[in-house]
């Protein structure tokens, strides 16, 4: 398996491209962060953009909330920005207090990726991260492939290879509001189902304690669809995070990339989004820290959108007891792939 020969951009100017299917559904992508910045559904009531995004590229470059971005090398948090591999301790970039979040200060969401567009419904983004980038070992080559299908799926395929032992945990950080990006309706008014059996309690700084807590009889039980706002801020875990900002471990039966692992329904019930993935867990984030963020048609505030970050669990590199399936450690010179699909039904 070879990596695509994408067109590099020596001027480092972000490029914006659109993918359109036969139903006139359209998504807009940018090479800045290999980001998904618009998702326009052709509803009977008119066109509706269902993801949050910046009003222009200049603002996209300045925002710090990862609007639609591909994040890495390691999504989510690494405690104290340190980990041990073999007999070596690595210190990586800390950008959330003493911790590393989404890959560090100069993470992949701020990079201008190389890009190619094989056809009107596909785009391929490629990035090479040098040995020592943000403190991580080894040269890493990453490819993110977007496809908009004629049955209204957005498929994101990830492929990577590293030449030294290194944790790699890639995800997409799109915020969804199925009522529309410009709507006054919030994430809390959506219905959500997640086939998650456990959630990860965290410290006040979002660092997992190490416990996997069964969701039964907790406010993190979304195995039956429920309104996101129903049990909102009703427990200590949510209160210290300002809402949901927690990892749910999927039931192993739903991580085959074919079975729906999560499903989101708009407040009016006119749009559904089903998520399938090959990743073992997902960060549920209700946009708690969206404070005065300039958006496409309005200023975003807390809960303007909800993110579903399919990934390995946060800080897994420091929790070997969780097992190899959840570690996210990549072996040298092997090609790793994963996929997440977003099926829109309207």
UniProtKB/TrEMBL annotation:
Query: Which residues are listed for beta-D-galactose binding in this entry?
Result: 76-77, 173-175, 245
> Where does the chain cross the membrane?
none
GO biological process terms held by the UniProt record: galactose catabolic process via UDP-galactose, Leloir pathway; glucose metabolic process
E.C. numbers:
5.1.3.3
Sorted alphabetically, the keyword list is: Carbohydrate metabolism, Isomerase
Query: Which residues participate directly in catalysis?
Result: 173, 309
A GO CC term? cytoplasm
Q: Which domain of life is it from?
A: Bacteria
User: Which PROSITE patterns does this entry report, sorted A to Z?
Assistant: ALDOSE_1_EPIMERASE (PS00545)
**What GO MF annotations does this protein's record show?**
aldose 1-epimerase activity; carbohydrate binding
Pathway connected to this protein: Carbohydrate metabolism; hexose metabolism
Q: Which Pfam families match?
A: Aldose_epim
Q: According to its UniProt record, which reaction does this protein catalyse?
A: alpha-D-glucose = beta-D-glucose
- Isomerase is among the record's keywords: yes
> Looking at the keywords, is Isomerase present?
yes
Q: Which family does it belong to?
A: Belongs to the aldose epimerase family.
**Protein name as annotated:** Aldose 1-epimerase
Species in which this protein is naturally found: Providencia heimbachae ATCC 35613
Its taxonomic path starts at: Bacteria, Pseudomonadati, Pseudomonadota, Gammaproteobacteria, Enterobacterales
